[in-house]
């Protein structure tokens, strides 16, 4: 039996929608949408979701509710991740989602977030397992090792929004700011890798906007093309080059990059630094970029 499902992933930086048909074996996209809402803005500092951030998210969800009604999805699941997991006023966010979408958001654990990411990414991969899947989000990064199933997973509090707010205050970031971010990122990445055993001998797969943006820049695309980015293999040298170029540029210069989403220009330096550090600490020669991620994992869970 085929079901029309609607999956929503609400992270620290963006809220995304996938409406798809699935028979349990295949997933056929009907609509994919992304809005940068920065739900986690200031959470690392205040411990609370701001009223403005909740309102930005509500506006996006009103749009999504209309799309879901138009296409007639019969199963809906919304997973809310790092920002709403950390916030003291998460109940306000939950009430808003329930009123807007008619479903309760699931504030998933870090482990469940990691497993959903792996499920979304691993289907369709032809590279040699085992895989180390890293999902670099706004507030957290998930590290998952597995072949066909998850063998080890951890979610850690290092993400492009969190590291930007914590360390990168100048434009462009100063050398001491970058050095402080690097110390923070490296320590956390090493702890995550020790937990999952994801060192040498695994195929590195990178998910989410920081990875796909770095990939698109490294490919020299004139505009974002998901078909070119999906499963592209990016050498470490290219990641290091793009990371350095982004760090040296100011906000306007980053914004002028053809593939840059306007809502990502202020946090991409930290995102690229996280990716580069993961590659260095694992000794990975390259990373496979994947457009299939936690959003696809949520959709598969509804099959």
TrEMBL record:
InterPro entries: ATPase_NBD (IPR043129), GppA/Ppx_hydrolase (IPR050273), Ppx_GppA_N (IPR003695). GO terms for molecular function: exopolyphosphatase activity; guanosine-5'-triphosphate,3'-diphosphate diphosphatase activity. Residues 19-298 form the Ppx/GppA phosphatase N-terminal domain. SUPFAM superfamilies: Actin-like ATPase domain. Its EC number is 3.6.1.11, 3.6.1.40. It holds the Pfam family Ppx-GppA. Gene3D superfamilies: 3.30.420.40, Exopolyphosphatase. Domain 2. Keywords: Hydrolase. This is Exopolyphosphatase/guanosine-5'-triphosphate, 3'-diphosphate pyrophosphatase.
